[in-house]
Each structure stands twice: as structure tokens, then as C-alpha cells.
Amino acid sequence: MNGVTPDPSDPIRDGDALSRLKLAQALDRAIYAIAWERAWPHLARVLTVVGLFLVVSWAGLWLVLPSVVRAIGLVAFAGIAIAALVPLIRFRWPGRDEALSRLDRGSGIRHRPATTLTDTLSSKDPVALALWQAQRERTLASLKRIRAGLPHPRLALHDPWALRALVMVMLVATFFAAGDERAMRLGAAFDWNGVLAPTNVRVDAWITPPLYTGKPPVILSAANKEAAALPASGPLAVPAGSTLIVRSSGSSLDVVISGGLKEVAPTEAAPKGTNEKHFTITGDGTAHVRAPSGQPQWAFAATPDRPPTIALAKDPERQAYGALQLSYKIEDDYGVTGAAAQFVPRATEDKDGTKDADGKAARPLFQPPQFALTLPNARTRNGVGQTVKDLSEDPYSGADVTLTLTAKDEAGNEAKSEPFNMRLPGRLFTKPLARALIEQRRILALDANKNSDVYAALDALMIAPEMFTPEAGQYLGLHSVARQLEAARTDDSLREVVASLWALAVTIEDGNISDVAKALRAAQDALKQALQRGASDEELKKLMDNLRTALDNYMRQYAQQMRSNPLARPAIGLDDQMKRIERLIQRGNREAAARELDRLARALENPPGPPSAEQKEMDEIARELNDLLREQNALRDETDRQSKDSKRGQRTKPLPPKVAEILRKSRELRQKTRGATSDQLEDLARQQDALREELRTWRESQGAR
């Protein structure tokens, strides 16, 4: 027998081919187990060093160390790792004999069964051959007990204190503690920028809030690497949309960001000799200047721009001539830049809903009204505004609508008020025919499919002209509008019919009075818009002249109405208001001029008519003051006559001081009654009673003498 490996093609061993295959596989497993036992202790030392490096990195140690210390630490870890790899240089792959010896030991059978199977017989003696074959068969029968066994690297001999387990526990803990900053903290170990940087490095960083917020910039760091102290409560709160600007001089600039920070291109070129980077802060995040080194990590909490709020301060009010007055409250954290009122038709509750008798959906000829609202200030943060809009000619006047107010801020946030159901105010018509025409106008404007119904109504109004339309001009106008509606085939033609119905109703109601009032309101609106957009002085002067001309025409027609209507009261103070507006414009106080113009509009919204209760009270006080003044004048004349009779040739004595004082105060009260409000009238009445009591007391004292 010798140790030569048997030939697998030998015919004597063809019967145990499977056994030989199993032996070969066991031999390979033994070789791999021996190799693992030799290599794993050295690899474990290297992996322990790598794990300790990850623990230090994820714990954030590199972030607080200077660049020089980072470089030294990284080199130290690299040296320890190389030292742990040095024993692997002597690594030797296990041989076949070592694998057979492991199989012999693992089988638990004496006489080296694995090695025996690899022996060969060199003798040709039949007896020896028979003995050899019997021995081989017994060995093959015990082949199932041959095992390579599991590797036993015996790490306890190389790491008796089990430091590898401690490193594993810390690795898991720091992995979860680092969170999303794992890559950033690991990369900080390789940040050596600034190790060779010059000593005169300057880093400046500041936050620029959006312009519309009105907030000043926030300085984060100053020269010579002095970081600004951040609030102790946590991240620095900044408005969303703010810009972080970092500027470095004398060195390269490297900024690491995370979270809601995004780098953007600078709007302006950086100063010569500096590097500058801009970042937009849209959400919570951090920023860290890695180069030059020595800068802290800044944390930011973005404060979002809240949407504005708008709501009705009180229910919409109808003004004279059908104008609508809206009062509303506006709030926003940085200021509202625009507001508007929007109307939508309110669906009827009848069985037809929004469909006509034929089942067709309503087809309005006009869009519902919508208009901009006047803001209390240019950027209103909290205030109450008021807008008066003339909707008397709008086709939707008198219709049931839903009002919604909208407000928008500089950031684009938009808010809406709660819907408010109302009936849109319109001009009041007193004549039956005019009211009927306005009703048919509204029906046609809101649903063009009802043109046949409107035509039937107009035709019915012309049945008995001697009873319903005795004036020939009204009948001819009604006939013309009916023929125009009959010939209308397009929506544009129907819109012309709507305009004709309005013109005819206004002509029947009051002739040309509304034209003068309309021209006056148009001139007023043009001047107000010019004040709001900052028009030139020349344009304002021209618009002011137009307004004065329109006001003169209005006053002339108003005077004619006063002559025909004795109960109408005169309009007082309009000319004085015009003069005040002119003075304010000349002084450049356009906001005050706009407010005075609104007061003029409210004064014009009061139609001529019988005096109100307040006006009657004012007139009564004025008459009583006049009576008091006449009594005082009579008393003064009587005193003068008595003085002349008693002392001829002497100079006339003046009025007694008490009477003169009462006379002076009464004249002042008379002046104050002009343009006084109801509250002021009550105060004037109390002062009048006091003067009357003083005069009565003085007379009694004179009579007693």
C-alpha cells in the first residue's frame, strides 16, 4: 500500500464510484473549514476596526472636531486596519493531507479511514488482494461517519474581552440615532478642507426673508468664523421662502444641506474675491459649512405663510339708486394684496329647478357680477374695509344670488368667505310699466331660452294702449322692443334687446335724470381709480375738472327738481367737499383724498326727497336758535334805547357782558348745525337749552331790579 491517489477509472473501483464522490465532497468541505478557521480571526479584527469607525462617524464625532483632528483620526483608523490585515499575508491555503487528517479526526474511527481509502495496493498476490478488498469494503461501509465538522475559529483566544460584541451593540445604536444624517456624518470624516487653508478666512451667512414679510435679515455668522448664537429653544424660525446666503472669502466654499433647503442660482454676481451660495428654505432643514472648517451646523424651522381670512363685517346694505355697500373684515399675517366679490346665481327651489318647461338648462346672456374690493390699506394685515358698487344697471339686479368674498396675499394664498345668500339690489321703479319691463329684462338676461315668454309678456302689455300706455312715445318704444326681440336670432341680438328694455324702462320712469347721475358717478370712479394707481398731477387735474363739470350738471338738474318738488331738501356741503378733495390732491395726500371721495359718494347716494326725522330735528333746532337770536337782538335794541334816553350825548354803552356772551355762543351753534350728524345734533340741542336757560335767568334778574 502506498499514498498514491487511486485512479477513478480503475475497473476494480467502479462499484464504489458513489462512495468516492462523497469522499471528494467531504474533502472539499474540510479544506474550506480549515481555511475559514485560519482567516476569520484576522478578518474579525479588521471588521471590528471598521465597525468602530462607523460608530464614531454615526455618533457625530467628526462634526465637532477640527479638520486637522479629522485627518489624524482617519489616518489612525486606516493604520489600525492595515495592521489587522498584516497577518493575512501569511495566510496559506490548506493542503489535501490536512483535509484528510481533519476527516480522520472528525469520523471518530481509528486507523485513519479517510486516508485508508486513498491508499493503493502495489502487490499482485491474490491473497493480499483479497485481504485488501475486504478491508476496503469495511471502510466504505463506515464512510457515512466521515465528517469535516463545523469551523472553529476560536475567536475567544484572539478577543478574550469580547470587544467585537460591544462594537456590534454600539453600531446598531448609532445607526438608528443618526437617522437621515448617516451619509452626511460619515462623509464628514473625509472632509479635510481647511487643513491647509489660509488663516484669514472670513465666512458670512444670513437669512433674507421674503420682501412682502417686511422682516429684516437675520445674521447667522460674522467675520473670523464667529458663529451667531442660535435660540436655545431649538431651530431658528424663519418665514417659508426665505433665502440663506453663505459667503466665503479667501477659501473655497462647501455647504452641505438637508431637509427643506434647496440651492438656487444667485440673482446677482458675488463680490470680487468671494464665493457665494444661495439656498431657498421651503421647509425644516439644516445647513453646514464644511469648508472653510470651524462653522456650526444651523437648523431652521420654516414658518409657512398662512392664508388670509375675509368675512362680512355686516350684512350687505342697499344704498340709494340701487348701489350695494359691502363691509368686510380682512386679516393676514403679512398683508392682503387683493380682494374681490363674486356672485353666482342661486338655484330656484321650484319643481323646474334650473330648467325651463322644455327641460333645457338655463342659458344666461351675461356673467354674474364680480368686482374688486377696496382695501383699508395697501397691505392690510387686520382691518375693516368698505366698498360701494353701483349695480343698478346690472342684468342680475333683483335676482337671488350667492355672494362670496375672496382675498389673496403676496405668496399666492387665497381664501374665501362663507357663502351669503342675498337678493342683489337694484334701482327702484315706481311706475308699473317700468317695473314690468325691468322684470322681463331680468328674465331674458338670466335665461335666453325664455325669449318667447318675454315676447308674450311684451305683446300683452300692448293689448290696450289707451289704458296701459296712453303716451304714444311709450307705446311706440314698447312696440319697437317687441319687434326687436322677435327678430333676434343670436345671443348678441338678445343682449341688445336687454339693453333696449333697460333704456325704455328708465325713460318711462324719469326721463334723463339718471343720465346725469350716471355721468357723475363715472367721473367719481375715474378719479378714484387714478388716485389708487398713482396717476400724474396733470391727469388728476383733468379728472377733477371732469368731476366738477359732472357735479355742476347734477346740481343744475337737482335745482330744477327742487322747484318742481317743494318737499325736496337742498344738497349742502358738496361744493365744500370738492374743495377739500382738491386741496388734498395738491398737497399730495392721495389716501386722504380717496377717503374724502368715498364720503362724497355716500353723500350722493342719498336721493332728494322729503326731509328725514334727523333733518326735521336739525331744522327745528335752527329755528329755535333763530328765535333766540331775534330775542337777543330785540333785547340789545331795547338796551340801546334805554341808554340813549338816560344819557343824551354820551356814547352808547355796549351790550351787557352776559348778553354778549350768549349772543356769541348762539351764533357759533347756528354755524355748527350745518352738516352736523345726529349725534352732534343731540349735543347742540343740549347746548341750546343751556343758552335758553341762561337768557331766562338773566331776564328774571333784570326784572327784579
Give a verbal description of the structure.
- About 50% of the residues lie in helices and about 15% in strands.
- It has helices spanning about 15-60, 60-65, 65-85, 95-105, 115, 125-140, 155-160, 165-180, 180-190, 430-445, 450-460, 465-470, 470-485, 490-510, 515-535, 535-565, 575-585, 590-605, 615-645, 655-670, 680-705; strands at about 200-210, 220, 225, 235-240, 240-250, 255-265, 275-290, 295-305, 310, 315-320, 325-345, 370, 380-390, 400-410, 415, 420-425.
- The strands form two sheets. Strands 1, 2, 3, 4, 5, 6, 7 and 8 form an eight-stranded mixed β-sheet that branches. Strands 9, 10, 11, 12, 13, 14, 15 and 16 form an eight-stranded antiparallel β-sheet that branches.
- A hairpin with a 4-residue loop joins strand 10 (about 315-320) and strand 11.
- Helix 16 runs antiparallel to helix 17.
- The chain starts with 16 loop residues before the first helix and ends with a helix.
- Mean pLDDT is about 75; it is low at about 1-15, about 220-230, about 350-355, about 565-570, about 605-615 and about 650-655.
Quick structural gist:
Residues 631-648, 661-671 have a biased composition (Basic and acidic residues). The protein has 705 residues and is of the alpha+beta class.
Oligomer: single chain
β-strand amount: 15-25%
- Count of individual helical segments: 21
What percentage of residues falls in helices of 4 or more residues?
40-55%
CA-atom Rg in angstroms: 52 Å
Q: How can the largest sheet be summarized? A: 8 strands, mixed
Q: Are there runs of 5+ residues with pLDDT below 50, and where?
A: 1-15, 222-232, 349-353, 565-570, 607-615, 648-653
Straight-line distance between termini: 172 Å
SSE-based structural type: alpha+beta
Mean pLDDT, to the nearest integer, reads 75
Count of extended strands: 16
Shape: elongated
